[in-house]
Amino acid sequence: MKTGNIDFFNGLLIVVNKLLTGFDAPSCTCLFIDKHMQDHGLFQAICRTNRLDGDEKPFGHIVDYKDLFKKVENAIAVYTSELDHEAGEPDPQIMLRDRLKTGRERLEDALEAISLLCEPVEPPKGELEHIHYFCGNTEIPTDLEAREPRRVALYKAAATLVRAYSNVANEMDSAGFSEVETDSIKRQVDDHVALRDTIKNASGETLDFKPFESDMRHLIDTYIEADGPRKISPFDEMPLLDLIVNAGIADAIGIKLGHLKGNKNAVAETIENNVRRKIIKEHLNNPVFYEKMSDLLDEVIAARKANAIEYEEYLKRIAELARQVRSGMTDGVPSSLDTPAKRALYDNLAHDEELALRVDETVRSIRPDGWRGVQAKERVIKAGLYDVLQDEAEVERVFRIVVEQQDY
Q1: What is the pLDDT of residues 257-288, one digit of tens each?
Q2: What single string gives the DSSP state of each residue in 273-313?
Q3: CA nearest 275: which of 306, 252, 255, 308?
Q4: What digits encode the pLDDT tens for the residues 181-197?
Q5: Would you call 346 exposed, middle or buried from its count of C-beta atoms within 10 A (0-12, 13-18, 19+)?
Q6: H or E segment to which residue 7 belongs
Q7: What are phi and psi of 176, to 5 degrees?
Q8: Reduced to 3 states, what is the DSSP secondary structure of residue 25?
């Protein structure tokens, strides 16, 4: 990235001779110093990252490329010399604690915290047991959402552990860890990171970058000069349901769930949770359709757990269900319903094609700009709906569906 003054990209702020004074950014977690500074300039630069910012930021990092540490000590001494220590002011030397000692303490605390978080998992504490604990029972539609706080706690604990480990990973011996302890800690960190990824996959909470592709491409094309990227796989970062539809369920399992190979139940529950999350996320867009999909998912899960179908048949049925949930429509929808909004109206108006098209045309023809959340403008749409539906309760029900449609 090249910049005259400031460029902002994906959380990285590159600054040249700016923002060193009169600028407060508590969320700043890391400062890279690549210029010579001293006295108040150096002290104020350090202050850009020394603010705490909730549980996510217990401290800030300063990466010094100019060997300024002695000048940091001098700057702190100069600008804290007038503190009245006898009046109870803190000793400024607490700001210069032993980095490795503190790093060891944080690593040990992080390991203990994530271990305690996973302690309630049922024996033998394999992948399936962890999926059950953090994602719930796939037969209970509300379990996945109800256990979200557990998953959030796991993700935060894993992130804290990775940060704590990375701070001392190259200096484990100097931090006081034996070779055996070092190997053990590395395995624990790897295991917890793998667990985090397993739970993210199992709950469908991996980040889908597709909505951001155009904006990211604009930023890259505008601000970054580099050779073209080499595509390793056409399915990089593709969500599991998309991968099932585009590559087939067998390849999707191999690509996304290869680490669960041999554990059919863990694979099945991961797919089921991803389908369930999509249903929950999209439910308001088309309540009738997604309630039907939820019922079909319940049937497939019950059949699998009762061993009423062979695993291969289960995979065919869950793959077909994933296809319908992802597309938001079943086979046989009239060709005139060529938008998600029209299909949602069709599904929620008792499959009355003519009525769905009339409602769609009415909303498109009368909707004011910026109508969502503006009571007077919303009343315009409701009045138009009443002309078609002639029922106030039905107007309110259909209006809630109209609000959710991006087409409008």
Answers
A1: 888 877 999 999 999 999 999 999 999 999 99
A2: HHHHHHHHHHGGG-HHHHHHHHHHHHHHHHHHHTT-S-HHH
A3: 252
A4: 999 999 999 999 999 99
A5: buried
A6: strand 6-9
A7: 100, 10
A8: coil
Q: Scanning the structure block, which residue is given the tokens 């001293």? A: 38
Residue 392 tokens read as 């106030």
Going from N- to C-terminal start, the domains of the chain cover 6-96, 99-203, 245-327, 341-404
Cα–Cα nearest to 137, from 262, 272, 257 = 272
DSSP-assigned states of every residue in 334-393: -TT--SHHHHHHHHHTTT-HHHHHHHHHHHHHHPPTT-TT-HHHHHHHHHHHHHHH--HH
pLDDT at 291 over 90: yes
Q: What percent of the chain has pLDDT over 70?
A: 80
Tell me if the pTM is above 0.85: no
Amino acid in position 181: E
Q: d(Cα 396, Cα 114) in Å, to the nearest integer?
A: 47
Task: Decide if 157 contacts 119 (C-beta within 8 A).
Answer: no
Q: Kindly state the tokens that stand for 138.
A: 């796939």
| Backbone phi, psi, residue 7, to 5° | -130, 150
The kind and range of the H/E element at 272 are: helix 264-282
